Amino acid sequence: MFKRIFSSAAIAVLLSHSIQACAADAVNADNSFNPAFSLILSGTYGSLQQDAAIPATGFAMNPNSGHERGFNLGESEMGISANIDPQYRGVATFAFDPAGEVGVENAYVQTTALGEGFNLKFGRYFSGLGYLNEQHAHAWDFTDQPLVYAVLWENQLGEDGVQLKWLAPAEMFFEIGVEAGKGRGFPGTEREKNGSGAGVLFAHVGDDIGIEHSWRAGASLHRTRRVDAESADVPDLGGNAVSNLFSGDSSTVGVDLVWKYAPDGNVRNSYMKLQAEYFRRKEDGELTYDTAGANVAGSYSVTQSGFYVQGVYQFMPRCLSGLRYVRLDSGVAQVGAANAGNVIADYAFTPTRTTWMLDYSPSEFSRLRLQLAHDNSRQGLADNQLFVQYIMSLGAHGAHQY
User: Fold this and answer.
1) Residue 218 in this model has a pLDDT that exceeds 90
2) Quick check: pTM over 0.85?
């Protein structure tokens, strides 16, 4: 009898402990999935003398990521990230267009335990080429991307694919990476095909010099193909604005350099950052001139390039000022005999843009910006531009890249 009572009591105690353990496991399971959530709110006021939709002279085949006049709600950005399990981490970033559309900027899975310095990313991501390309808009030092990014990458190169990075086990920072993607981002053309539509190779090296200085340099190579890429309102030798089609190979090489200085290593009080990037692109293929009229096809090849140099200086806590200069070279095209009398080969003009900005950040979560620019990227249409911008960050606020 005593044994039966004792056994019943023991079973009751064991059941009680089991129930508590299960409840604790459930609570732990709930807490283990606790994604970081962020929301970026931004907006601008723009004053421009010229129509922002007009592309840079000599770059009519490239998209024009122009500005807008008056008051405009900027792109709102919502980010979600969390560890999936000990092997994987997930990140998603959604962009809310002022017109009401929702776009997927990033949606990728990243490994956390490959080891030996390797890291694998797959899904949708900003390419690792260059320096600025991986940075989201709210982290830019200016209201807009440099003009060379706007005309060569449509502001940023986004890709659907896979990226493999290797970080060397050394005191000096050194990483190399390779990407294979669909080719959805400009200058590629999204196509239904097996295999890869675009590829990227990049390498970065950097180091600290004492506690006050640091630097990073990089080189990139991007290759893709454009198929029936249409350009509207392209000027021809007769002074007409026509629509053209281009199909061919596109190859871009780039180099970048960043240097940072902070007195006594204290970036909260004061720091300076200088950076520069240069890109050179060659496109070779077939151009169809005036698709709505003459519709003449012939060979076409051109090499175009551009660079920017910029510096930002935090002269006191919460206050930052910056200056940027951009220059493009539209190159001299090699036009086949069929279109030699139709297509402009040499525009004999150098597009430039000079920009100054002033930031005030009441906290790390808010920023107010004034920006002035002299845009001389379109021949005969010099433009003095003014922008006022706000950027507000809600929720989790992760560290930005170097």
Assistant:
1) yes
2) yes
